[in-house]
Amino acid sequence: MNEDVFNTSVRKFLKQVGVTSQREIEKAVRDAIASGRLKGSEKLPAKMVLTVGGVDLTFTVDGELELA
Question: What's the CA gap between 68 and 54, in Å, rounded?
Fold first, then answer.
């Protein structure tokens, strides 16, 4: 295994996940506020599940998103 290639590949994937996830979260929250489902002062539970095929990896991160 080429460590540099692997490290670069992992970092590229995580950057894509981070940027795309943030965009989707922001859109969903704005839409929920606009439709009245959220007031804009909530704390929202969040969970990210990462799976990687071929190595039987499932990793879960639990957190909270504060809106105000």
Answer: 41
H-helix or E-strand spanning residue 63: strand 57-66
22-49 pLDDT, tens digit per residue, is 999 999 999 999 999 999 999 999 999 9
| Predicted local distance difference test score (pLDDT) of residue 42 | 98
Q: Which residues of 2-33 are buried (b: 16+ CB within 10 A; e: fewer)?
A: eeeeeeeeeeeeeeeeeeeeeeeeeeebeebe
Domain locations in the chain as residue ranges: 3-66
CB 38 within 8 A of CB 29: yes
